[in-house]
Amino acid sequence: MKSKYFKLNLFDMSSSNHILPTSTTNILIQPLISADEAIIQNKKWTKEEKKIWTFTLFLGAMCLFSVRTIMSVCALEISKEFNYDKTQMATLLSSFFYGYPITQVPGGFFSDKIGGDLIIFYAAIVWSFLTFFLPYVTILSTDKYTVLSLITLLRCLTGGFQGFHYPGTSSLVSKKIVENERAFTFSFITSGQHLGTLFCGMFASIILEEYGWRYTFQLIGVMCFCWVIYYRNNVLIKSRAHLNILNAKELVINTDDQSNAPSQSNSVPWKDILSKPSFWSLIIAHVCQNNAYYMLLTWLPTYFQENYPGSRGWIFNVVPWLISMPSTIFAGWLADKLIARRQSVTFVRKFTAFISLCGAGVFLVLISQVKSYSSALFLMACTVACCGFHNAGIMVNPQDLAPKYAGSVFGVMNTIGALPGFIGVKFSGYVLETTKSWSIVFNQTAGLCFFGFIVYFLFGTGKKIV
Q1: Alpha carbon distance 69, 66 (integer Å)
Q2: Cβ contacts of residue 388 below 8 Å, gap of 6+?
Q3: What is the pTM of this model?
Q4: Mean pLDDT of 348-358
Q5: Mean pLDDT over residues 388-411, rounded?
Q6: What does the alpha-carbon distance between residue 192 and residue 59 come to, in Å, rounded to a whole number?
Q7: Is the pLDDT at 254 greater than 60, yes or no?
Q8: Taking a C-beta distance cutoff of 8 angstroms, is the pair 147, 83 a contact?
Q9: Dist CA 4 CA 320 (whole Å)
Q10: Is 211 strand, coil or helix?
């Protein structure tokens, strides 16, 4: 039988069949030459490669959340400048999430097919530019409603392109990291999002006070462009060139042995996945956790500004997220350590879900009862710290359930999980506008956290389903 592989001259660049790309453009856009892309996509990172990629994606998560949370820091100033009420302010805060769910599924699909590394890169170029450009839309009209629409549109587009990032990351980690190291790696990468929130809370708050919200957006945009350039030049290009060399070697080695080629289905078995209660319990728990996280992410600055007007923005925007970063990293370390000590993956995922959902729920109830600034700040920090355990449990679970299709499954999970980003945030704004009660907002959010854990505890699993 004729092999689907063919011999190539690896280093004869005059040959029409050479495998090494001749330009940077080829490295970025040329598909892997292997007749079966799974040969390359499923190669695990070496120890050194894992360090480089993990640190780079950690910085990427920082930039990602700097862009996502910058509106929370600036929304009050924008609202004052254009005389927006709470409902319109909620539109500013939630507009990012109008676009965010739309690209989760295609992001996961294309990441599984052509590589999450490329998807992350191309998407980052766009959302970095949109962030830098946003302040300029305010000069296009003097009508405050038109300005609101334009800002909403750009934030919607920004959310749409950021929607590619985490499905791409999940796909990469699933393919490149062994099972008992995934929780820590993914948790460490995603802990960068807390550093991004910290950056906005501390440095962006200072820029906001000194120079205004427009310069704040531009600062974040420039920072993100710097990361994109670093990612492209120091990680992506080198990695793709290395993969092409490895791929060429595989082609030569397997020329006369087609049976060694791995096979991979071209379609995601959605019928099997959607029929499993464990998948839907994952979705419900993720939605409930995200509802709490997005509420904190968007309304936390406003809560402290309204209830404790003498408090410093760089303190209440920093302290909770300062605690959450080591909490997230510790959660990943703990999860992998428990699995290494032969605890079942199912137990570990449910244990971390208990801390993230029930822990956050308890502290949210307590926040609604306190009256002092120091108590509120402490309890808010505890709530956010509990949320950090989500990244070592439910966020990693798609890689347990469907390792080959982790990007696609994560995309669906995060599509539905993004709904609280605009529905929950706008509902909180409506409640605050009509009742003026933060206790109602905190208590209903806590109730959803408890509900999410009960569902996941009953039906969730860490076992492979497809």
Answers
A1: 5
A2: 187, 191, 194, 324, 325, 327, 328, 330, 331, 356
A3: 0.74
A4: 95
A5: 88
A6: 6
A7: no
A8: no
A9: 56
A10: helix
